[in-house]
Structures are given as C-alpha cells and as structure tokens.
Amino acid sequence: MRSGITRRDTLAAAFIAGLPLALLDVAARAGQIDPADTAITPFDAIKWSAWSGGPPNSAEMATLYGGLDAPGPYLVLMKWNPGYMSAPHSYATDRLSMVLSGTWWVNSGADFDPANAVPVSAGGFVRRRARTPHYDGVKREAKEPAVIALFGIAPVKFELSDPGKPAWRQI
Length: 171
Prior knowledge:
Elements: H1 7-30, E1 49-50, E2 59-65, E3 72-80, E4 84-86, E5 89-90, E6 95-101, E7 103-108, E8 118-121, E9 125-128, E10 134-138, E11 146-154, E12 159-160, E13 168-170
Antiparallel strand pairs: 1-2, 2-3, 3-11, 4-10, 4-13, 5-12, 6-9, 6-11, 7-8, 7-10
C-alpha cells in the first residue's frame, strides 16, 4: 500500500480549488448582453415626438421598431392626451393594439359618435381588421393620457372615411 500525495491528487486538488472561481467567471459572462443581439431601451430613454398632422398637445408617438412607412413589421407607442380622438379612418393592413396605461376609448364605423365609444383600460387588447373604419382617443374628463402599443405590417396607408373632414377631433 502506497501512502502520500500523488501527482494526480495534486492536480485534482488544484482543479477543485479553482472551480468556484471558474464558475463565478462563467456566471458573470453569462449576464452580459450583446447589443447586436439584444436591444434594450429603458422607458426614460424612449424618444417621443408630436404626432404629425394633429392639433398641438393632442398626441405623441415613439417608434420602437420598424416604421409606419417602411415595408415590414412595426411597433410604435402612441400617447393620446385627454380631449382628442381620431376621425373615422381605416388602414390597409390589420393592426394589433395593447393599452399600456390609462384608458383608451374605441369605436367602429364611419359615423363619428364618441358618446358610444367603449373604454379599454390598461392591459386590454384591440384588434383592428384591415379596411374597417374606426376611431379612438381619450375622453376630455380623463385624468391621464392613454399609452397604447401598436403593432402591424407597414406601410400603414391611413385613409379617412370622410376626407372632407378633419382627421382629428377635439371632444
């Protein structure tokens, strides 16, 4: 029977002693994000701009992915301020919407009737079928804007139901 420490014991001890440090290094590297693979935009870094063509302070938009005019999928945030609605309009493609905060008021049809709009609160989902007239916005008495995430396939091709009337309505 042999006694004492062998070369194999010494190598095994060194390996076992270094294992926790090696695992810590792997764990640290596993948490690093490659911005080319995963894009993160903190909420306070989202760039909002006035919605073009609308009255001042009526709404803002932030493009998170794609664009409303560029072919392909898009994801935009829309912030509707209280007291404004869109006029009845439609799009050439379906649009999926999720209310992130506040209450968004929606209705379907070519006749503008905000009194019969339906409230959709935070967490609610709305699907608009292509080429169906609808309108939406936030009622004047609301205490906060509604923020909606909009997803669809562009180009959007916005069409008013009655082009002779304004695209926005103050209510």
